[in-house]
Amino acid sequence: MFILRWQALKLALLALWAVVPALAQADPAPIRIAMIESLSGPFANTGEAVLRNLIWAVERVNAGGGVKFSGTGSRALTLERYDSKGQNEEALSALKAAIDDGAQYIVQGNSSSTAAALIDAINKHNEREPSKRVLFLNYSAVDPILTNEKCSFWHFRFDAHADMRMGALMSVLKDDRSLKSVYLIGQDYSFGQAVAREARRQLGLLRPDVRLVGEELHPMGRVKDFLPYAAKIKASGAQAVITGNFGNDLTLLVKAAKEAGFDGRFYTFYGNALGAPAAMGDAGIGKVLAVADWLPNVPNAQSEVFYRSFRQRFPKPADDYVHLRMQLMVAALVQAIEKAASTDAFAVASKLEQAKVTLANQTGSMRASDHQFQQALVVGLMDRQGEAGVKFDVEGSGYGFRVVKSIAAVDAEQPGNCNMQRPLK
Predict the structure, then answer these.
(1) Is-contact 97 64, C-beta < 8 A?
(2) 360: left (phi > 0), else alpha (psi -120 to 50), else beta?
(3) Count of alpha carbons within 13 Å of 391, Cβ hemisphere only?
(4) What is the DSSP secondary-structure string of 112-144?
(5) C-alpha span between 24 and 292 (Å, rounded)
């Protein structure tokens, strides 16, 4: 009996010794990034478009060996998606689920009101559960308040905020001496209100001679027919429209303006993507302007290589939606983790607020005082592909954007009023 038991014990020990080396050689757990975005509902297309950018950014990091820890190897990044369904309540539920799933880094951007709700929730969570703190990286929510009155040590914005974007558009508008009248239209929530407020302010400063002939805010994501709005714009005699609309709210607006016979210019934040150029067609040539951190037709060789690489990864014309800032955001996160030699939220945040990254000849740096990323901006004018400066079109539409103004990071920068509350550790 004793011999049998000893043989059984030896077999068990041998089995255990065989398992231990395998466990020791197993890949370390990946670093989890959770994207919380509308993946269903009226703005699902914007969420899916962002997802492609982030997938590519994560793939590029992992192809380069992952996030490297000196002396202890490396860890891969993994991206997990959570559907907010365009609702703040759903976004907050998704945040809890993501944290419960082990995510340490939250990314979101396609709604400033959602971003504000996430900032508040993350501030409370991080104070309540310091051992499970997370960081919030924002790629598109551009209400200025998010890095001013609502600034947070745990929140970092990688897009130019609305006032910065408006300043870039106004640098073009102010030089159009033939322009005498403008109409403001936008989505009725914090971002749309911020765009209208800043447009009024900058018009008064830079072009007090331009008349504001109409101003309107409409329900976000709920208007199916913009023809009544387009009719008002045309009847007002406006020569130009300034709008921060995005997604279907922009696409339907420009389609309606075309049908109504509006012949003026559109000064837009997002007129260069997600169906807008195809909707405008020839009527948009020489009339639609868009501000961005980067455009495919930025005239330098590194930019072209970057853009062609994305198109090779996502060859369908409908998937043609790439933003350099989202790649810079992930690069900055990796840089901060590697410099911190840790994934701890406080350690990484302390390095992330010092981040400086370069890709495709675009350099950006994080301003530590408010966690607002500083980078160059460009303004593009819509034209037919093949015309001078329009090598690449948008979404296979046959229309692209020629860069008409480049604004250096130092000129795009604006002062802030953040009173950052910094944890001790």
Answers:
(1) no
(2) left
(3) 12
(4) HHHHHHHHHHHHHHHHH-GGG--EEEESS---G
(5) 47
Indicate the domain borders of the chain.
31-160+311-375, 164-292+378-411
288-292: strand order across its sheet: 211-218, 181-187, 240-243, 265-268, 288-292, 377-384, 399-407
Beta bridge partners of 406: 378
Whole-prediction pTM value? 0.88
Which of 54, 28, 42 lies closest to 137 in space, CA to CA?
54
User: CA 322, CA 319: separation in Å to the nearest integer?
Assistant: 9
Q: Residue holding tokens 């009725």?
A: 188
Task: State mean pLDDT over 372-387.
Answer: 97
Provide mean pLDDT across the span 172-193.
Answer: 93
Q: What is the DSSP letter of 318?
A: G
For residue 146, what is the DSSP state? G
In sequence order, the β-bridge partners of residue 106 are 34, 136
Same fold, 31-160+311-375 and 164-292+378-411: yes
Instruction: Name the CATH topology of 31-160+311-375.
Output: Rossmann fold (3.40.50)
Which tens digit of pLDDT belongs to each residue from 3-37? Answer: 445 455 455 545 555 544 544 456 789 999 999 99
The predicted-structure confidence for 72-118, as pLDDT tens digits, reads as follows 899 999 999 999 999 999 999 999 999 999 999 999 999 999 999 99
Q: Evaluate whether 260 touches 345 at the Cβ level (below 8 Å).
A: no
Closest CA to 133 of 116, 115, 155: 155
Q: 164-292+378-411: CATH homologous superfamily?
A: Response regulator (3.40.50.2300)
- Is residue 254 within 8 Å of residue 202, measured between CB atoms? no
Give the burial class of 261: count Cβ atoms within 10 A of its Cβ; 0-12 exposed, 13-18 middle, 19 or more buried.
Answer: exposed
